[in-house]
Amino acid sequence: MKKFFLAAISVFFLFSCSNTTTLQNNGATGTGTTVKQKDIADTSWKLTAISGEKITPKMMNGQEVGVITLDITADKISGSAGVNRYFGTYTLNGKNITLSGMGSTRMMGPQDLMEKESKYLSALGNVTGFEFKDNNTLVLKAGADTLTFTKVK
């Protein structure tokens, strides 16, 4: 019985760390400021607010944890959702952006970070538009929610 229990626990941990999950995405295309691929590729962003509510990273042992990031390459997005990593692809077409193929790892973390992550991934999966307020601020629009990022790189 002990061996079965240990085997079951091992399988659970193996799958919880290695699987990916599909995030909801309408495949919707939104409008915003005209952006060229070269202007957005190879940039990194840090989430500063969800729907106007300021996001403050949690401090543990003198380090920030739960930082939510968005990294953009020529055709892919990825980043940290606070606890888990996420990834997907995007396409730009003039004023339109389309996110697709979204997925993430499935690890558990502190309840408050998991709640913040869930809210972020839910909004990210429903992005319908974007706006650059200046060269250092990116706002993704997801229905009634907005995700505000500050440029890191």
Walk me through the structure.
The chain has a single domain (20-151), classed as Lipocalin (Beta Barrel). The longest helix is centred in the N-terminal third of the chain and has 17 residues, at 2-18. It contains three helices and 13 strands, in the order αββαββββββββαβββ. With 153 residues, the chain is α+β, with helices and mostly antiparallel strands. A hairpin with a 2-residue loop joins β9 (85-93) and β10. The relative contact order is 0.23.
CATH class: Mainly Beta
Number of domains: 1
Oligomer: single chain
End-to-end C-alpha gap: 53 Å
- Mean pLDDT metric: 79
- The share of residues in helices is 10-25%
Number of helices: 3
CATH fold naming: Lipocalin
Biggest sheet record: 11 strands, antiparallel
What percent strand?
Answer: 35-45%
Total DSSP E strands: 13
Based on the structure given, which CATH architecture is correct? Beta Barrel
SSE series: HEEHEEEEEEEEHEEE
Which secondary structure elements does this structure contain, and how are they paired or packed?
Elements: H1 2-18, E1 21-22, E2 30-31, H2 37-40, E3 43-50, E4 53-54, E5 58-60, E6 63-65, E7 69-72, E8 76-80, E9 85-93, E10 96-104, H3 111-124, E11 129-134, E12 137-142, E13 145-151
Antiparallel strand pairs: 1-10, 2-10, 3-4, 3-7, 3-13, 5-6, 7-8, 8-9, 9-10, 11-12, 12-13
